[in-house]
Amino acid sequence: MKRFVTCLALLTALPLAALASDFPLTVHSCDRDVTFTQPPQRAVSHDVNLTGMLLALGLRERMVGYSGISGWKNLDPSMRQALAGLPELAARYPSLENLLDVDADFLFAGWSYGMHVGGPVTPQTLAPFGIPVYELSESCSRIMPQRQASLEDLYRDLDNLGRIFAVPAQAQALIGQLRQRIARVTAQLGEVQRKPRVFLYDSGEDRPTTSGRLGMPQALIEAAGGENVMADVNASWTEVSWESLVERDPEVIVIVDYGPTHWQHKRDVLLKHPALGEVKAIRERRFVVLSYLQVTPSVDNAVAIEHLAAALHPQRFAGAPR
Fold first, then answer.
1. 203 and 60, same structural domain?
2. How far apart are alpha carbons 134 and 276 in whole angstroms?
3. Number of folded domains in the chain?
4. Which candidate among 69, 108, 166, 276 keeps its CA 20 to 30 Å from the CA of 90?
5. Helix-helix angle 48-56:2-12, to 10 degrees
């Protein structure tokens, strides 16, 4: 993530464009409207991808903590440096006490990204304490009907965060950079005649965890010129059966690398599974490794598309920098 530090430096150099007249500000979050009387000054983020969005928008100085990283994920050196001195309030799920202890005035989280229906930390439980919540758009499918996942969900979140924190210029610059990178991939792909069948493998030995049409990998695989073999599954991150994987016979398997279980172990689980021997991706050992940060909604989605497109259509990216 060398580009992360460069991007952060460029964005923090931009002027704060929003005026006091922009507030009160109301933004839409899942099935709610959330009103802010002023930009947050004591924000908390959950998970590495949501935390990365705030950092990329130059908001480190307005954060009082983060949660949900060390319990499952790893930080790369550049993000570890960016977070130096900022406390991790909880290794896994934040509690109400965690947020009150740092006098938080904003939480950026999502459903299954730090919040669960009926759990101790939700927009409803935090409202009496004056802590507004903005929900990750991809996660809204956990609590309401949702259309197929799209990169527009990511752009919407970045735009809303830019408005909430009164840094709209930084948000628009970042969105513009991501759009340009993805547009270059689209131009290089041209009119793809055939889209390889792709299965995303997150984890699981009894049943594999993957992503259906409502998860960000759906949008990433499509943008990279592939076909998500689980696109008919009306869910985001979910478990499926090994039998359904065999039936769909993917040509390429994306392995999500994060936490203590290294991607090689996940690959070996797939290679040794007795039911998968005739799956084309297994026979030909066509694996693509992407990080958790790259496959969940994040500022790393563009690089995920670049890597995956080059793996799915190497003839169109021969000689291109990687």
1. no
2. 41
3. 2
4. 166
5. 40
In a domain, 185, yes or no: no
The two beta strands, 106-111 and 43-46, are parallel
> 99 and 232 share a domain?
no
Residues 54 and 169 occupy one common structural domain: yes
DSSP string, 211-224: E-TTSHHHHHHHHT
Distance CA 154, CA 61 (A): 23
Let me know whether 97 and 27 are in one domain.
Answer: yes
- Asked if residue 170 and residue 270 are part of one domain, the reply reads no
User: What is the identity of the amino acid at 100?
Assistant: L
Alpha-carbon distance values, 275 to 178, 279, 282 (Å): 39, 9, 11
Domain of residue 311 covers: 192-316
Would residue 197 count as lying in a domain? yes
Beta bridge partners of 127: none
For residues 29 and 56, what is the distance between their CA atoms, to the nearest angstrom? 21
Decide if 88 is inside a domain. yes
Same domain (yes/no): 124, 207? no
Q: Which two tokens stand for residue 70?
A: 């060390």
Q: Say if residue 145 is in the same domain as residue 12.
A: yes
Q: What is the pLDDT along the chain (322 residues), one digit of tens a residue?
A: 444 444 444 444 444 444 567 899 999 999 999 999 999 999 999 999 999 999 999 999 999 999 999 999 988 899 999 999 999 999 999 999 999 999 999 999 999 999 999 999 999 999 999 999 999 999 999 999 999 999 999 999 999 999 999 999 999 999 999 999 999 999 999 988 899 999 999 999 999 999 999 999 999 999 999 999 999 999 999 999 999 999 999 999 999 999 888 999 999 999 999 999 999 999 999 999 999 999 999 999 999 999 999 999 999 998 655 5
Residue 306 forms part of a structural domain: yes
What phi, psi does 201 have (nearest 5°)? -110, 110
